[in-house]
Design brief:
mainly beta, Jelly Rolls, six-stranded antiparallel β-sheet, six-stranded antiparallel beta barrel, Thrombin, subunit H, Methylamine Dehydrogenase, Chain H
């Protein structure tokens, strides 16, 4: 039985639909029909100027990238991997907020400007050539704790001034605060974002009292009268983006919706089960599992940056097949493509200390970056992503990431097939054959399980590259351990030995994990290791299933550089005697 059959899919509906149940750092679009490891992300070197908060949006203006992170505005020199530094040109606002602020580029009559909303005012920043820096354009009528998204449409800039009231300005900065070019929505709807398209402006909202969230369509002119209001089949329309004049939305049920011209339809979903993702229906701040600016198009595919924490973190930290990072929709599958890594760019002298954080603390903005002509290859990247991340098991910091544009850094990922049941009840799966294309330093670890056991999350302290200590009970030789947070995150190994002394367990792994130290988070699961493939003989490996069954899931952990792929997995079965 061929599993892929040149058609790899992840539908995220139950255990059996599609080819895949779980993906991490995978790429289904680079080499269609094969499973590739996605290029790893690169951490921008902000160590000299630590960010004040989570970066919540990115705009390219005046040959530089700008972002808002915490209370401050930051900029870089124009390359996606260039260091972001605090903006000091012309008295910028210092009371911005990752919870409420936004930024947008606007063509004013005197030239292009960057619009920035702080917690209490709207500012414009001129280009360096004009040299006037930041100018106050509007003091908001609301108090603190108000959301202030910005949108540009038909030569006007619009912003949320207070509660559900939208005001605007023309390109001479003559403000409209009543009458034409203003909108007041019903108070039960909190505005999260605004996006322009050819028919007007889409206004994404969350219902304050648990009702249906709506996307309002407005022509941007008529006072207090929207054209239509569209349901999003959830309490909130949390993030929005327009691609080729087609609006897209991520709702609070973690579904991706596409506008059809007469309404929204669900086209994909994250694999949530009974619980919602972190703060999915949070009203007051933009701390939900996806930020309003966390949805965009990258290389022609809709992509979203998410925080995978479960809404009920006292029960489980995260569901086993939802990982933090960037998920990509390839018009069929919604799958995990990029995790956020500690690795800095190769020319900055950084080293590998992780392979991507499975768990983060907060998701921020996401934006595609153009391939800037004349930019050095090592300075290129396809996107910018902002987040609050963990530096160890509990400590957090804020950062900005792009990807390794030319994919020259060692990386790892894994995938899990959907549950597969033998076609005949008397047949049992007894062999797994893996077909692959190797690259330098590749290592594939093939494993399986015939039933699922509850996973266990626990804290560890690294003592060497293959050893950690923990007070977690119930660990045993052969258990699979995934590092989910801190140094070593993204790597998977199995326990080869374990000892105990006064309630502290020393655990030895069967693989070396580069650059680890300090505390980290780990997860135990019940996968049975079949074999490690790290040498090339026939570009395939056939391994026996030691515990044959009529039901099976297969997992492959992949490590390598460049175009390492798994081409096919074949299952053999035999009649049960």
């Amino acid at each position: 039985m061929k599993i892929f059959n040149n058609n790899i899919t992840q539908y995220n509906i139950g255990d059996t639909q599609g080819t895949l149940y779980n993906t991490f750092n995978c790429d289904l679009t680079y080499n269609k029909g094969k499973m590739s490891i996605a290029s790893r992300t690169i951490f921008t070197p902000t160590a000299l100027t630590p960010l004040d908060g989570t970066p919540v949006g990115f705009k390219y203006f005046d040959n530089k990238w700008f972002t808002i992170a915490g209370t401050k505005v930051y900029k870089n020199s124009g390359s996606p991997v260039a260091n972001f530094v605090e903006e000091t040109t012309g008295t910028p606002p210092t009371n911005c907020s990752s919870d409420y602020s936004d930024l947008e580029v606007f063509s004013a009559s005197a030239g292009d400007v960057l619009l920035v909303s702080s917690v209490d005012a709207l500012y414009s920043r001129s280009t360096d050539a004009v040299g006037t820096g930041f100018t106050l354009r509007r003091t908001f009528s609301g108090g603190s704790g108000q959301n202030h998204p910005i949108c540009v449409y038909n030569n006007r800039a619009y912003w949320l001034d207070i509660d559900s009231k939208i005001y605007s300005t023309d390109n001479t900065f003559t403000n409209a605060t009543s009458g034409t070019y203003t909108m007041s929505l019903p108070n039960e709807y909190k505005v999260l974002w605004m996006r322009a398209f050819s028919n007007g402006i889409h206004i994404g909202t969350i219902h304050r009292y648990g009702g249906d969230g709506l996307v309002f369509e407005w022509d941007g002119v008529t006072v207090n009268k929207w054209n239509r209001a569209y349901k999003v089949f959830a309490q909130g329309a949390l993030a929005g983006f327009v691609s080729q004049d087609i609006p897209y939305v991520v709702n609070s049920n973690a579904e991706l919706l596409q506008f059809t011209g007469s309404g929204f339809k669900v086209i994909a979903r994250l694999p949530t089960r009974r619980n919602k993702l972190f703060k999915a229906n949070e009203i007051s701040t933009n701390t939900r599992f996806i930020h309003p600016n966390g949805l965009c198009e990258i290389d022609g595919y809709m992509s979203m940056l998410i925080n995978n924490q479960d809404n009920n973190t006292t029960t489980v930290e995260y569901q086993d097949n939802i990982h933090s990072g960037i998920w990509e929709y390839d018009d069929v599958s919604l799958y995990h493509k990029h995790s956020l890594s500690y690795r800095t760019r190769p020319d900055s002298g950084g080293s590998i200390t992780d392979y991507g954080q499975i768990s983060i603390a907060r998701a921020g903005g996401l934006a595609e970056t153009p391939d800037l002509y004349g930019t050095s290859e090592v300075l290129k990247g396809n996107f910018l992503a902002g987040a609050e991340y963990y530096t160890d098991a509990t400590t957090t910091a804020h950062g900005i990431w792009t990807d390794s544009f030319y994919d020259e850094v060692e990386k790892c990922g894994f995938f899990v097939t959907s549950q597969i049941r033998a076609s005949n009840i008397e047949e049992m799966f007894n062999y797994i054959t893996t077909l692959f294309v190797p690259t330098q330093g590749f290592n594939f670890v093939v494993k399986y399980r015939t039933e699922r056991a509850e996973h266990v999350d626990f804290t560890i302290t690294w003592t060497s590259t293959d050893t950690f200590t923990t007070t977690q009970t119930g660990l045993a030789k052969g258990n699979e351990v995934t590092i989910t947070r801190g140094k070593g995150s993204g790597r998977i190994a199995h326990i080869s030995a374990i000892s105990e002394n006064a309630g502290t367990y020393t655990v030895t792994l069967d693989e070396q994990i580069t650059g680890v130290s300090g505390t980290a988070k780990a997860r135990k699961e019940n996968w049975i290791k079949v074999n490690s493939i790290n040498t090339v003989t026939n570009k395939f490996q056939k391994d026996a299933v030691n515990q044959p069954d009529t039901l099976i899931e297969i997992k492959v952990a992949m490590l390598g550089t460049g175009d390492t792929t798994v081409d096919e997995i074949i299952l053999d079965n035999v009649k049960n005697q």
